[in-house]
Specification:
Rossmann fold, 2 domains, globular, alpha/beta, 7-stranded mixed sheet, 11 helices, binds flavin-adenine dinucleotide, 4-stranded parallel sheet, FAD/NAD(P)-binding domain, about 450 residues
Length: about 450
């Protein structure tokens, strides 16, 4: 038997590589914390690439908000246990500034109106209210506001995206919208968005695509395409196509697994490694235990064998049921790694409402870890389970991010709050200002 490898020791170990874990690793790096991230990529791969802050509150009324900050103020008053109530507005703003600055540095710029939500087109022809959109989708926000003449294009090969379907839902409000279906250029026979995005990395395919789009352009003042404009050099590809076609282009989010999610994952992995974060992506933590009072020991199962991590602090960013951070059985719901108490409606019969599509969501959708003001999960007795154990993201209780439209915002804000609670920045690491990335329009 080969000897087990030496354990890797870190000040902070973060479990879960969804947007909460990745953001926590970024904020830790910015504060000079020695951190390791271990986890399978989260719902990020399924995500639209849009970043919601808060759009709907209260769920009972279905009220949608233009000003997400006013919505957060109202939510804090109404649900004092909501994770947003444990982070100052200034901290949420700082978290977004840091995240967007980082992504822009990684060649994945986002746009927003700092104090307003925006509306974007969705694959199904609906309109979604969100906070930040990839730069490559921003033209769609403007086009929809202006309702100018616009061409939506789809491809023979791409399933699950129909320009015709989107346009037919919008035509009554947007008469200048037209559609065209064209074959995807080159030898790409694939039907997956990732394959098309990779194909557009080649200039020849872009040239052919631009020629086909130009032939259908007519009087259109902008062109909407499924979000497949490259995987690694999206900005350049989008600029290049715009120059060849001659009008602004915009991407429309597509069904999961989305290229926008892959771009986010790659940007994080690249950037975090550059910042000195130890990354164990695609690895699963099989078990965690406390050793003495100041050490967490994690056993990691990986295709290349087993690893052991030691951390003096641990952050759970392991998601809910889909990610595997929570487990439900006949006896209730528990957290999977440390068997922590999970807040949820007592009786199984109370977990769901009668109507599956009830706009208020189901009570079980607000299940999760209860925390104190320092983002420390509480044990069965209502006390912090461990002085140096933190939690962030969708694993937290008292929030329904799907219905409230606050998925990324909640993950990022709670990651910031938990890293801040971990401790002050290491000497020499100051808070960074990312003002240059903020769009004031
Ligand atoms: C289809 C879809 C569309 C979405 N669209 C939007 C949108 O438009 N706007 C928006 O703001 N948000 C959107 N979201 C939500 C957004 O992705 C959430 O913010 C996010 O899912 C919550 O992030 P998280 O990091 O807390 O949890 P997760 O994304 O669930 O990540 C947790 C990760 O931890 C890993 N993990 C769990 N246990 C272990 C273990 N033992 N060892 C290692 N790893 C472990 C899981 O595998 C998982 O990968 C969407 C989500 C989905 C599914």
């Amino acid at each position: 038997m080969p000897d087990a490898p030496e354990p890797i020791t870190s000040d902070l170990v973060i479990v879960g590589a969804g947007i909460a874990g990745l953001s926590a690793a970024l904020f830790a790096a910015e504060r000079g914390i020695d951190a390791t991230l271990v986890g399978e990529t989260g719902e990020i791969l399924f995500a639209s690439g849009l970043m919601d802050l808060l759009a709907v509150h209260p769920l009972e009324d279905g009220r949608t908000w233009e000003d997400p900050w006013a919505a957060i103020d109202a939510l804090r008053r109404d649900i004092p246990a909501h994770p947003y109530a444990r982070v100052e507005t200034a901290d949420i703003r700082a978290a977004f500034d840091a995240l967007l600055g980082f992504l822009a540095d990684q060649g994945l710029p986002y746009r927003r109106r700092t104090d307003r939500n925006v509306d974007v087109l969705t694959t199904m022809g609906g309109v979604k209210r969100t906070y930040c959109v990839p730069e490559t989708a921003w033209g769609g926000v403007r086009a929809m506001e202006e309702k100018a003449s616009c061409l939506l294009v789809d491809f023979d090969q791409l399933r699950g995206f129909s320009a015709r379907q989107i346009a037919s839902a919008l035509e009554p409000r947007w008469p200048g919208i037209r559609t065209a279906r064209i074959p995807f250029p080159g030898s790409t026979r694939g039907q997956y968005a990732e394959q098309l995005a990779l194909a557009l990395e080649a200039p020849g395919n872009r040239e052919a695509l631009a020629a086909d789009v130009r032939a259908c352009l007519g009087t259109a003042r902008s062109v909407g395409l499924p979000a497949v404009l490259g995987l690694y050099r999206t900005e350049m590809i989008s600029r290049d196509l715009r120059d060849r076609i001659g009008v602004p282009l915009f991407e429309i989010p597509i069904l999961p697994p989305s290229v926008a999610g892959l771009r986010l994952r790659d940007a994080f992995h690249r950037g975090l490694t550059e910042k000195g974060i130890r990354l164990f992506p695609h690895h699963r933590v099989a078990a965690v235990r406390y050793e003495q009072t100041d050490k967490f020991v994690l056993d990691i199962a990986a295709p290349d064998g087993e690893h052991r991590l030691h951390g003096s602090a641990l952050m759970l960013a392991s998601g809910r049921f889909l990610g595997g951070g929570l487990r439900a059985d006949r006896n209730g719901i528990r957290e999977t790694l440390l068997d922590l108490r999970v807040h949820h409606p007592g009786e199984r019969a109370d977990w769901h409402r009668q109507d599956f599509l009830d706009p208020r969501g189901h009570p079980v959708n607000a299940a999760g870890l209860e925390i104190d003001d320092r983002f420390r999960p509480l044990n069965d007795g209502g006390e912090p389970a461990h002085e140096r154990l933190f939690a962030a993201g969708s694993i937290l209780a008292h929030q329904n991010w799907i219905r409230s439209k606050c998925g990324v915002g909640l993950a990022v804000a709670s990651a910031w709050g938990a890293v801040k609670a971990y401790g002050p920045p290491t000497e020499g690491y100051a808070s960074l200002s990312f003002e240059k990335y903020i769009d004031k329009n």
